[in-house]
Amino acid sequence: MAAARLRRGAALRRPDRSPLDAEERARVAAFVHPADRDRYVAAHLTLRRVLSAHRGVAPAELRFARRACPCCVGPHGRPVLAGSGTPHFSMSHTGGLVLIAVAGRPVGVDVERLPAPHKATTGPELAVHSHFLGSLGRNSA
Questions:
Q1: CA distance 78 to 62
Q2: Cα Rg, the chain, nearest whole Å
Q3: What pLDDT, on the 0 to 100 scale, is given for residue 33?
Q4: How far is CA 23 from the centre of its chain?
Q5: pLDDT tens string 100-116
């Protein structure tokens, strides 16, 4: 597992984006806010560096695909490395943090920014995908 704090400033504004593929570059171009764009670029470059170390190839050589959505079978499921199914990976980023897990079997991570104490709620105000709840029950057995 790798965790990184994404720094603000000039170093993030002009990183070498050449390892990013066409889909990633299109997403970069769509961001309205520069800070969001910079965080996306930094997170995806970090993911490519971590995965390239596991695969033994240059970051730009990695090719990604999408699994079918487990609920609707649409082409917007989890990203996976094209070709071989391993290593499996998961990435989550929020604000200035990115968390990446790499494993020999399916893995998942999530990182969320905690609300300020005066904004925290005590009720169960969550929106959870029903498939996630089903898979959570299967995995904990």
A1: 16
A2: 17
A3: 93
A4: 14
A5: 999 998 888 888 877 76
